[in-house]
Amino acid sequence: MNRSDEPTQPGPALHAAGRVRVRVISMEDGMTLRQLLGRRLGLAVAPASDLIRAGGVYIGNVRTCIPTLRVREGERVTIFCNAASVEPLDPDSLVVVHRDAHCVIVDKPHGVPAAATREGSRGAVSHALVQLLAREGVLRPYVGLVHALDPGAAGLALFTARGQDRSSFLAKFSELDMLRVYRARLSGHVPEGMSCETPLVKTSAGFRLARPDEREAVAARTEFRPLAASDGATLVEVELRRGPTEQISLHAQALERPVVGRAGAGEVLELACVRLAFTHPMTGVAVDVRAELPPWADPGAN
């Protein structure tokens, strides 16, 4: 057993990094998760439970939000100590543009994560949706983000939504031939017909550009249609169907026309999903929704 994984009281240096990893030892076998956090981090019951419910604790590679879950000897527990400090997103602040028995489409603002990050789930749209469904009486609600959208980006985020009484149907939405229309501001001049066909590779952290002759590469093509130019940047429109949202930023970067702004929570990346159109996989009904354009995405705003 790796003894470096077994501090009885982690020192300040571990807390400064924001992440603590421990391995459950024999005397901790059968403890609840919140008891383990109390022993290892010196937390009282309430803050330990809050940290777990905020999505900051993993057993192995699986996030768990149940404070009373019992741990077993040898299990590795990863704790992101700052997860509970994130301000929760008010469910009543969500701009819901479509909702039915199977899915919800939210018009997400810049800077807000669509789904849980590695460090925690609090503050994300998905977390607020779970709270909303629970408040409405749905037992153990589950939501699934269909297409990734960077926290710094804005626009339409499609989620499946269900309770514990129904099996998952996320795959049915993920496999759809769905029209997704995006707007972005790219640095520099974008000529008519600019496109990129660099293949992509999926990794545990998302997608990246493929290297030449890489076996796992997946074909991808992005066409950038210029709409307007100002202040050294060009407003473009992009249509995707099955490709990942990440290919827009990756292909723009490959063409040396990066998306204006910064990615990440609390930031503004001038990229927005402005339209979703698809045939509902569960009902057969046509769904076609549009987001309110951010000022930078509207060529007539200025």
Automatic annotation (TrEMBL):
One Pfam short name: PseudoU_synth_2
InterPro entries in alphabetical order: PsdUridine_synth_cat_dom_sf, PsdUridine_synth_RsuA/RluA, RluA_PseudoU_synthase
Highest taxon listed in the record's lineage: Bacteria
The Pseudouridine synthase RsuA/RluA-like domain, residue ranges: 103-253
Sequence intervals crossing the membrane: none
GO terms assigned for molecular function: catalytic activity, acting on RNA; pseudouridine synthase activity; RNA binding
Biological process terms in GO annotation: enzyme-directed rRNA pseudouridine synthesis
UniProt-recorded name of the protein: Pseudouridylate synthase, 23S rRNA-or tRNA-specific
Organism of derivation: Nannocystis exedens
